[in-house]
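Narrative summary of target 7.
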Amino acid sequence: MPGPISEVSSPSHPLRTINRSPERSRISLATAKDVPDRDLVVDVLSPDAAGTVLTGTDSKGKGRFIALIPSSCFGQAAEEPRRVVFVLDRSGSMQGAPINQARKALQACLAALREQDRFGIVAFDDRVEILGNELTAADIRNRKRAAAFLSGIAARGGTELASGIRSAAAILGREAGDIMVLTDGQVAGIDPIISTAKSTNLRVHCLGIGSAGQDYFLARLSRETGAVSPYRARRRHAGPDR
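Modeled conformation, tokenized:
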């Protein structure tokens, strides 16, 4: 980098810093099993917010350049109310620790919303159960209502994720919004689920619960709907790790 580097991180992959100097950092994937099957996003924090152009030659002697434009140069994006529907997997494979982790993760997501944001909740197995037929304001009263709804959710039945996604899309209606799926990823019929998700024209973000044995599916579901799947809740003695 042309100036000092304060921090290097990634929202898409766990990273490991091999060596670092004030203007240079060399990084690698933190774990060998994390295959590069999605775009690698690297955030570089620098105290200098000026744009820069770097030039040089490659191994074949051809000239190359890179334009670096800090995100702060684009100004602050306007804060608009969020519209999100959480889709909670309550199928039989979520029995025990996974369903408890999913409930806690969903409650943490609700706590991060502002009062002007609006949300909905869909719980699915081979049937669908919803918290109301439309989005509701994320105020204290409705968060308590959501907590009571979640406390009555137990693992059971099969895994009809496509039905859960369709129900979430119906709640959002024709306006923009996002879907957040919380699941252990143990589903059958991956392609039909992805086709259903793409047909909604909505972003389907994913949070893998437990071991999330089909991480490839969750990453693909998010990627093909223009969303992200950067987090995984893991089993630990102290509770879920987000």
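The chain has a mean pLDDT of 84.
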